[in-house]
Structure formats: C-alpha cells, structure tokens
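User: I'm writing a short report section on ligand binding and want a predicted complex to refer to. Could you take this sequence and adenosine-5'-triphosphate and write out the structure as tokens? A short remark afterwards would be nice.
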Amino acid sequence: MSAMLEVADLHVGYGKVEAVRGVSLTLDKGRIVTVIGPNGAGKTTLLGAAMGLLPSRGVLRFEGADLHELGVEDRVERGFCLVPERRELFGEMTVGDNLILGAYSRRKDGAFVKSALDGVFDRFPRLAERRRQRADTLSGGERQMLAIGRALMAGPRLLLLDEPSLGLAPLIVRDILRIVATLRDAGVSILLVEQNARAALETADYGYVLETGEIALHGAASDLLNDPRVMATYLGGATE
Ligand SMILES: Nc1ncnc2c1ncn2[C@@H]1O[C@H](COP(=O)(O)OP(=O)(O)OP(=O)(O)O)[C@@H](O)[C@H]1O
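Assistant: Sure. The structure tokens for the complex follow:
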C-alpha cells in the first residue's frame, strides 16, 4: 500500500536558517502519526511546509501527487486541514459563526454546511450548548474543541494538528486526544505534532522524534513509549 502522505529528505528554512533538515516520514491512510520533539525542533515548520504555507524542497507527496505543484487552496480541496498551534479563532464571533467559517470553501452549499454543523455538534455537545456564545468566552479546552470543530467543517481527510495540548490541564488534554482518536476511527488521517510526548504516543499509531530539524528516532508509538532514550528525554525518566 502506498502512503497517503510521503515526505522524503525535506528541507525547510527561514532565509539562511534551515529549520527542517532532511526529514523523511510516511503516513498511511486512517492512521495517527505523531511528531514529538522539544521547543524549536521544527515541528510547526514541518506542518507549515505540508500545508503549503512555507516553501520547501524534497519529496512531498499526497496520494502520489506532488504537493509542490499545489497551492494552499488546492491542498484544502484535496482534504488537507491545519489546526494551528494558536488556534486562531475569531473571539468576537459566536461559536456557531466560527464553525461556519470552517466550511468557507463550500459556503454556498447550505445542505453541506448544515450537515457538517450537525456533525460537529454531535461530536462536541459542549459547542452545541455554547453555539451562540462569543468564542472568547470559552475555556481553553473548549477553544481547542472549537478549533478542531472548525477544521472538521471543511470535511478533511488529513488533519494537521499543531500542539492541541498546549496550555491545557492534563485531564482536558486526555479529553481532546480521546476525540482525536475518535476522528481516526471515523476515517480521518492525522499528523499530530506535540511536545506532550506521553499523551501523543499514547494516542498515535506511529511516532517520529524530531530534534533540531532532524528525525532522531522513529517507530511504533507503543515501542517509543518504552524506548529508554525517549523515556529519559521526553517521558520524565520512567513509564507510569
Ligand atoms: N518565522 C520565522 N523566522 C525565522 N525563524 C523561525 C521562524 N519560525 C520558526 N523559526 C525557527 O525555526 C526553528 C523551528 O521552529 P518551529 O516553530 O518549527 O519549532 P517547533 O518544534 O514547532 O517549536 P514550538 O513547539 O516552540 O512551536 C526554531 O529555531 C525557530 O526559532
């Protein structure tokens, strides 16, 4: 089976500074692949290149098609959707209106928008309860749910998630990542970038460790959770 997303020897830089240096990874359809690593390792940069927000060189293919030939909108059309690290919600708009913006590319198809909205509200009852509330009145966890919900409004096939656990309490992180796992079970493929290595590896099928722009280690997520190097550096020294 060929990979849904194939990245090989990818280089991404800001001017002369190379932030991603020869990264290779693959993501098979219906899987959660996580990229873990410390602050500044290049995780966000990697997602930016995959989404087409940053120029890159190397192999970048989606279902066999060369992504370098596709702009951001083409990638969205093919089913890419990025949930950015800062969530980037419109605070003064209601929860419902933020969600509807997520279906912007299909805004003229009222039946699609309604059914997508119903789908998000089924998945996130908390957002349904707060649909008329301003987004800036939500808690951190609810904002992350809204950011993911807005991405789902576009009907994604590949979700790029940038640090969904950022700033959230451990119990909320668990809730959010449980939802991420249900999305995978519903057929959405997921590239999950995280600093919270344990939570990410407990959720993902496969993991890559990114250090200063290079893949230091990769393997089945369950193996990485028990890898002494990962344990020592990213999991606080021991498994629970
Ligand atoms: N706009 C930019 N201009 C110049 N350098 C940048 C820019 N954005 C990121 N960098 C640099 O690229 C490197 C990788 O940053 P990146 O944000 O991709 O890391 P990260 O692993 O996502 O870290 P974090 O968890 O802090 O977001 C860092 O050295 C960072 O300082």
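A remark for your report: Residues 14, 17, 19, 37, 39-45, 85, 195 surround adenosine-5'-triphosphate (CB under 6 Å). The radius of gyration is 18 Å.
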